[in-house]
Amino acid sequence: MSLVDEVRQWTDEAFRTLEKAKLLSSLAQAVLESTDHILRDQLPKRLDQAESLMSKVKNYQANVTALMEHLRSKVVNGIIGPHTTAINELLVPALSDLDTALDHLKATSVPLYLINDTNTSALFKLSDFVSYDVIEKLKGNIAIYRSNCDKGRQLLEAQLDKLVDIAQKNNSRYSRCSRVYESQVVAVQLVMRYAQSTSLPQGNSNIVRNILKENASLEQELVSLLEMLTNHYDQCVLAVTILKGSSGNEVDFNVLRNDAQELPSVLKEFGSIHDIIMTNESRAAKFVDQRLPHIESVINNCEELISSYARFKNEDIVLFVLLVLGCEEIFRSNSIEAKSDSGKHTAELYADVVNQLTYHYTQFYDIYHQKYLTELHYEQFVYPRRFLKHLNDFLNGSLLRLEEEESERRRHWLQKYGNFIPKDFVLPGEYNQPSVVQVISEGLDDIQSDTAAIDETRLLDLIKLLREAQS
């Protein structure tokens, strides 16, 4: 074979090899760019998105948790707790005390002779003189108030339980999402962070860094080999031109021959590089495919949680706050025209009114037993006797002596001086001496009646009976 034919053969082989190399290089470059895009752009962006969303979710979780604790404390400790305490410790005992006081009045009979209306033969109890219509109206209003508050309390507790249930579900979803984020996403973030650094922590291996670094080297090798093949082909074309005598340049045919003999090995090296790049793509794809689902899961869960948190805050909690405000108004309402801003709970205000009634009727009971009958006996029998005694002592004692002394004085004066005064004058004497002709008294009927002794004995027996009953 002539040198010209041999050089032409080298040229054809160089062209075919260069075309194959370009094809392999093009395929490899596409894979390199795809791998680089996945590892340097796509994956980092998804990681950044996951991190950003997770940060928002953490803020939402902290905010909602604090808000729920505030609402729970307000409802349990600020509304229901004080109301229940006021009802159980103030209002219920007050109502019980009132009933006890009324029972005492019901158990105490009142004799007819103590009643002004003597035209009745009815049997009376102390309770017959109680304004039961007022008490029953008050108790009815209290019952309505307690019923409304119980309904409000039950509704508050039910809605609070629903809120807590939603919050707990969100919290469980948040915990699961956070665990996946910490166990999967954070680990990938560390890998990607160290992949960009110039050095790794001692003893650590980084697959992403290795792939990117190796692909960069392989890309340079491809460029170098492609340049070498291009140069060899150009030299072959130049050699053909020289052999035709149309060029004055020189070519080392021995070098061309050796290079031509190396073409299969160079093409093989291209194939090896292409295979390594494809392997790296598979490694990168495997790395991403194993981790991206977890990242996507975190992203999706975070987006759902953010929507759930927003709906929870803007709808559920807002409705609950409106319910709380409405129930607070119910708990503050009362029918006794007491100011709601007095600082006292409504149940305490009701208890105050009930306690006032209890005090009044307890005093009624105690005074009737301990003071009223005694005072009545004193005014009807004891004092009138004292009065009569003083009156009798006065009329038959000092007053009588005064009259006798005055009468004697006048008689003596007339005897001594009367004869010296003409009869035409008004003379002193006994005829116009002041004297008691008639004594009219009132309020003594009780001791002057024919039944005075019986009436007094009856009253004293009642006093004795009541004292014995209380002792």
Strand proportion: under 5%
Helical proportion? over 70%
Poorly predicted parts = none
The multimeric state of the shown protein is single chain
Q: What would you call the shape?
A: rod-shaped
Main location: cytoplasm
Organism: Sungouiella intermedia
Protein name: Autophagy-related protein 17
Keywords: Autophagy, Cytoplasm, Membrane
Topology summary:
Layout: H1 3-106, E1 109-110, E2 124-125, H2 132-195, H3 207-243, H4 253-332, H5 346-417, H6 445-448, H7 452-470
Helix pairs in contact: 1-2, 1-3, 1-4, 1-5, 2-3, 2-4, 3-4, 5-7
Main location: cytoplasm
GO biological process, one term: autophagosome assembly
GO molecular function: molecular adaptor activity; protein kinase activator activity
Structure description:
Keywords: Autophagy, Cytoplasm, Membrane. Residues 17-421 form the Autophagy protein ATG17-like domain. It is found in: Cytoplasm; Preautophagosomal structure membrane. With 471 residues, this protein is an all-alpha fold. The chain folds into 2 domains: 3-332; 346-419 and 438-469, no CATH class. It contains 7 helices and 2 strands, in the order αββαααααα. The protein has helices at 3-106, 132-195, 207-243, 253-332, 346-417, 445-448, 452-470, and strands at residues 109-110, 124-125. It has a two-stranded antiparallel sheet with strand order 1-2.
